[in-house]
TrEMBL record:
The name this protein goes by in its record: Large ribosomal subunit protein uL4
Keywords carried by this UniProt record: Ribonucleoprotein, Ribosomal protein, RNA-binding, rRNA-binding
Record-annotated membrane-spanning stretches: none
Residue span of region Disordered: 45-79
Lineage of origin: Bacteria, Pseudomonadati, Bacteroidota, Bacteroidia, Bacteroidales
Organism: Hoylesella oralis ATCC 33269
Composition-biased stretches (Basic and acidic residues): 50-59
An individual GO BP term: translation
Length: 209
């Protein structure tokens, strides 16, 4: 699949790049996409929910009533879960929600997500560019020129570029990432991918190992 390379003014440069068929042209696997997105969202969870059990409550340990014959549920001290204000039974404890996925599964998930974007013609390739200063207005103009204004846009850069990052930071529908940190969730969450030429090479190097 060939895609024209644009400049930041939205004009064609006369060059074309061929998207790697083994990355952008595979049959997407929905199940591995589900697993990779599930892992990403699980890793975002803090896992700090905690409730007190009966041994952690402050209160007397005196037995409140007879074991039998009271006509109600058995209960021991005032911290019993049976009583209002008592400890909670099987409450949440701090935990890690993350789980393991094989590298090949994660790679296939990213390839599948990128293939979906290629099928939707939602990939824009631009020549490598830089910004002299962090200016949101300049970034908005670039989005207008590339006809992606108003769309959830994911811009992939080959390396950290502070000026570009700061220019897009205040825009709700724009996000800037380094190509080497690309993940399935971010690809699917975006309406359109704007990829620089060097970023394409980085993606090829990572996903064709």
């Amino acid at each position: 699949m060939e895609v024209s390379v644009l400049n930041i003014n939205g004009q064609e440069t006369g060059r074309k790049v061929t998207l790697n068929e083994s990355i952008f042209g595979i049959e997407p696997n929905d199940h591995v996409i589900y697993l990779d997105v599930k892992q990403y969202l699980a890793n975002q969870r803090q896992g700090t929910a905690k409730s007190k059990e009966r041994s952690e409550h402050r209160g007397s340990t005196r037995k409140l009533g007879r074991q039998k014959g009271g006509g109600g549920a058995r209960r021991g001290d005032i911290n019993s879960p049976v009583l209002v204000g008592g400890g909670r039974v099987f409450g949440p404890k701090p935990r890690d929600y993350g789980f393991k996925l094989n590298k090949k599964v994660k790679a296939l998930a990213r390839k599948s997500a990128l293939s979906y974007k290629a099928q939707e013609n939602a990939i824009v390739v631009v020549e490598d560019f830089n910004m002299e200063a962090p200016k949101t207005k300049d970034f908005v103009n670039i989005a207008k020129n590339l006809k992606v204004e108003g769309l959830k846009t994911l811009l992939l850069l080959p390396e950290v570029n502070k000026n570009v990052y700061l220019s897009a930071r205040n825009l709700q529908k724009a996000e800037v990432m380094i190509a080497s940190t690309l993940n399935t969730y971010k690809v699917l969450n975006a309406d359109v991918l704007v990829v620089t030429e060097k970023s394409l090479k980085t993606i090829d190097d990572i996903l064709t190992k």
